Amino acid sequence: MSEASFDYWDFFIGEARRAGAPLYEGLARGVAQDDEIKALAQAVRPGQPAANVLFAAVHLQLLRGADHPLRAYYPNLNGGKAATDLSNAYFAFRDFVAGHRAQLSPLIETRSTNTNEIGRSAMLHGGFRAVAAEAGEPLHLVEIGPSAGLNLVWDRYGIRYRLPDRVVDSGAHDARLVVETALRGCHLPPIGDNPRVASRVGLERSPVDLSDIDERDWLRALVWPDHVERFARLEAAIALVAGETLPIRCGDALSLLPEALAEVPADAPVCVYHTFVTYQFSDAARNALDDLLVAVGLRRPVWRLSWEGSLSGDAPLLLHTYRGGATHTRTLAVGHPHGAWLEWRA
Known about the structure:
The protein has helices at 8-18, 22-32, 35-41, 50-63, 89-99, 101-110, 121-135, 213-221, 228-240, 253-262, 283-297; strands spanning 139-144, 158-162, 167-171, 178-184, 197-204, 248-250, 270-275, 302-307, 316-323, 326-335, 341-344.
C-alpha cells in the first residue's frame, strides 16, 4: 500500500477485523465517516495511534463506572457476553463522547498507548531460545519500550502451544501464569527450559507505575473489550509482580541504549528487543536505532529481536545480528499482534 493511498481509519478497521474485535471494527467504521469525532481523535500526541487512544479514553470512563447505554456493547463489562446487534453501537458511542468530552479530551491529548500484552511472551519465548542457540547463555537483555515491564519478565510465564491434536508446554514448569497460543503451520518453535538470563533492563519514555491505580486503569483501558481473556491475563501478570520494582529506566531509549549496552561484559551475549514499539518512532529514529546497533556491532556482536506490525497486517518476528559492520536479518515467525496465534518459520 503506498503512503499516498493509506487511510488510517481503513487500516484500523482491517486490524480490528483481523483481531476478532467486532465492536472496535464497527466503532472505527463510524468514526471514519464522522469528521467531528475524527478531529477529536487527531488531537493525540505526535506518533500516537488515534483510534487506540480515543477508544481507550472512552473505555476508561466505562471501566470506572460511567453509566450509559454504551456499556451494553462492551463484552468485558457484561460477563464476557458480546452484543448480538451492533447496529446502534456507534450512535451510543457518539452520544457518550458528546456527554463526556471534558473528561475525554485531556486523556486523548496526553496519554500514550503503553499496552503491555502478555500474549506476546509466547512469541518472545521461541525468539530468545533462537538467540541463545546462536549467541550462547546466559543472555543479557535490553527491552525498548517495556511499558510496565510485564514482558520484561517473559521467562516467569509458562507457554502452551495449542495444536489441532495436542498441546505442547514449554518454559517455566512451575509458572503461576501460563500463556496459551494457537500454533499454525508445520514447524514447532524451539521448546524446553528457558534460556538463562544474566541481566535485564527496560528503556521506557513513559513507564507505567503498577502501584498507581490510575496507571493500572489506563493499562486495562488499552485492552480491547472484545478480548475478555486478555483482561484475565493482564490481571494475573500484574499480580505476579505486585510489590516489585522492575528494572526500567525512564527516558528516551536511543539516549539510554548506549550506556545499557556498555554495561554488558564485552564477551557476553546481549540482545535488544522490542514488540510493537518502533511504529511510534519517526523514520529518522528507526534509522538511528539501526545505525547505533551497527556501530556497536563493530566492537561486539549484538542480537536484536524485533516484532512489529506492518501496513499489510503481517507481524513478523525478525532476528537481526549486528557483527563487524554487517547486519544479517532472518524471519523467525509471524504471529497475531496480541499473541493469539503464531506460525514458526525458522
